[in-house]
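task queued by scheduler; priority normal; single chain, no ligands, no partner chains; default sampling; output format set to structure tokens
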Amino acid sequence: MLMTGHDPQNFSPTGLAVPPSREDLPSLGAVVAKYRPGRTGRFSNVALGAPVKEGRVIGVGQSAGLLGGAFDPFGMYDDPTKPLRLEGFALPENVTLDRLQARVDLRGVIETQAATARRTGTDATAPFQAYYESALSLIQTGAAVNAFRLEDEPVALRDRYGMTKFGQSCLLARRLIEARTRFVQVTWPARSDDEPAPGPDGSWDTHRNNFPMLRDHRCPVFDRSLSALIEDMAQRGLLERTLVVAIGEFGRSPKIGAPTTNNVGPGGRDHWPECYSFLIAGGGVRPGQVYGESDRHGGWPKLDAVHPYDLLATIHHAVGINPATEYHDTLNRPRRLVQHGVPIAGLF
């Protein structure tokens, strides 16, 4: 729901995720890449940290689905605490710039033929053309690729973000935004349903031992990295034109250690989609406000309840996309970008 703006379709009757396919509805990043693409030579949709992982399935709700592979995120999932491998953005040793230009010229001839095919509805190369143009522009300009060179940042600033996978992914996100990348998603590195373990990058799935795990491991890393990102972007003048959203897929149950069907143990908390919060900054949002209120147990909304679809409609609105925009799925059925919901006007 949070990734696509629609009720889940990619789960089996037993509740297990199924592998992504081109029949899936597109993710938020893919929608932004299609309707508000980045400039030539810039990325439109980048995913950092780790792919979304549900059980053994990778990439749930994260692809462009039926919009086509040209709008899938570029995934950089290498450990950013170490130098990132960028060989994919360099020309092979046996390919000179002259040879590359010859290939571009040859492509021009093919494109002329393809234009005729498109007019007759027989062109099967359109998805490839989008891939090709994007890859070529990235290699030719190099500006977007340079954003991945974290070693160019001062050591003190890297330490401010924290030398963790999440922290350095946040720093990398700032560099990509600075390089005019349109949409960046940083996913926490651990798989959602792994047993939490001590250390900086483990899971948040605290069915047991909730408080020590959050106090000693998860929250310090998250607070340090997110505050560094917001502070850094504000100092560079990036925050006023960039929307930063931090959110999980649901909250945790207000009752501690209550026995449930989800294997809650001593000091643990269960899944809880009924009431949880998100942080949003920049992009015209008024700072310093708290929007909405829960009941005294933190279990249910009390005032100004917000649905995940309202948040997605707000993001679309902030980046200049009408959330009521429609497209057609593979069965030619009309689909809205967001199933329902309206922008949260009170945030601006």
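post-processing summary
- The longest strand covers residues 45-48.
- The mean pLDDT is 87.
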